[in-house]
Design goal:
With about 350 residues, the protein is of the alpha/beta class. It has twelve helices and 15 strands. It has helices at about 10-20, 50-60, 75-85, 120-140, 170-175, 195-205, 230-240, 250-255, 260-270, 275-280, 290-305, 315-335; strands at about 1-5, 25-30, 45, 65-70, 90-95, 110, 145-150, 155, 180-185, 190, 195, 215-220, 225, 245-250, 275. Helix 3 runs parallel beside helix 4 (about 120-140) and helix 8 runs antiparallel to helix 9 (about 260-270). The longest helix has 24 residues, at about 315-335. The protein is globular.
Length: about 350
């Protein structure tokens, strides 16, 4: 099977790249060539997908059983992809987002039939608009789409706490080890599944070239569901410390740190459980086998193996201190007001 990944070296896609090669897929990665970590067995095609002429040259004469677009985020990018891969692939897989599902949720159990609507987050609305354009292309011209909606997924290089620096994720671990508190939205009892990228890859690679998956959408997550307090506690245990947590209402956090409003109010503040029955029907034997406690141990070990990886986002760290101070001050004033 001949497959093209547009991207393929990111947090989620790198695990899929590795597994696809291990399973004998003839895999091509189309990217700008700025990442040296292309796994043995994969073929690199160097071009910026935003440069139509360079991309056309890189893909000249190529046909694929499946094309996976890891880096499309807007309808304009989808329009470009449809024009580029029309007649060139038997399957076009678009990486959407589980945050496109209805927010606030109408039912705690999310299936692929759950309505798609997110008034809080531009990222999610853009992904939804991409899905709508692809569905129209499928209905109108038979463009062979499959849609995949990852939820919160992590790997060795990411600490996937609800409030952390995504770019410098060791920041939360550093605070834990310094005895400083971490912020948890709400009361910490919201339920969330966090999926290891190696588990996601097992379901995803099973969809490559799967002709019965054409026209369908899937999410791929773990069946393990923990509270945010449990997830923070497991992370702290892996780091060899005990978590000190401050629970702050999500709307308070969003008011103080507006950049976080989308990912909080539009995604992670409510309890969400994913029904994985559909991916298990299409990919028999799919099962997520990495408990969060074990996966986060691997992550902490990865950071501890090289001090150069232990970079801290000083600006974010200071913001958290300010937010905690503002919350505690307001709490004290509120208590005094009611005495």
């Amino acid at each position: 099977m001949k497959v093209l990944f547009i991207g393929g070296t990111g947090l989620i896609s790198s695990a899929c790249t590795q597994l696809a090669v291990e399973r004998g897929v003839e895999l091509f990665l189309l990217n700008r060539g700025s990442r040296p970590d292309v796994p043995p067995g994969a073929h690199q095609l160097v071009a910026d997908i935003r440069d139509p002429e360079a991309t056309a040259r890189a893909l000249a004469g190529q046909q694929f059983d499946a094309v996976v677009d890891w880096i499309a985020y807007t309808p304009d990018e989808i329009e470009r992809a449809i024009a580029l891969f029309r007649g060139r692939t038997r399957q076009y897989i678009f990486i959407s987002s589980a945050s496109a599902y209805q927010r606030p949720v109408g039912h705690y159990l999310i299936t692929e039939d759950t309505p798609l609507a997110n008034p809080f987050w531009d990222y999610s609305r853009n992904k939804l608009a991409c899905e709508e354009r692809l569905l129209r292309a499928y209905r109108d011209e038979g463009f062979p789409i499959t849609i995949v909606r990852p939820s919160l997924t992590y790997g060795d290089s990411q600490v996937p706490l609800v409030i952390n620096s995504w770019q410098l994720p060791y920041t939360a671990v550093a605070r834990m080890r310094q005895g400083k508190p971490l912020i948890v939205p709400g009361d910490g009892t919201s339920l969330w599944p966090i999926t290891h990228n190696s588990d996601f890859a097992k379901g995803f690679v099973g969809l490559l070239g799967h002709q019965q998956a054409i026209g369908h959408a899937f999410h791929i997550t773990t069946d393990e569901v923990l509270t945010w307090d449990q997830l923070y506690a497991a992370t702290a245990a892996a780091a060899g410390v005990e978590a000190k947590l401050v629970h702050i209402a999500s709307d308070f956090i969003a008011a103080c740190l507006p950049d976080m409003a989308g990912s909080l109010l539009g995604d992670k503040v409510v309890s969400v459980v994913f029904d994985n029955s559909k991916i298990k029907r299409f990919v028999p034997g799919y099962s997520a086998t990495t408990p969060f406690a074990r996966g986060i141990e691997r992550t902490i070990a990865w950071f501890d193996a090289d001090p150069r990886r232990q970079q801290i986002d000083a600006q974010v760290d200071q913001q958290w201190d300010r937010l905690i101070a503002a919350y505690e001050q307001g709490l004290q004033q509120a208590v005094l007001a009611f005495r």
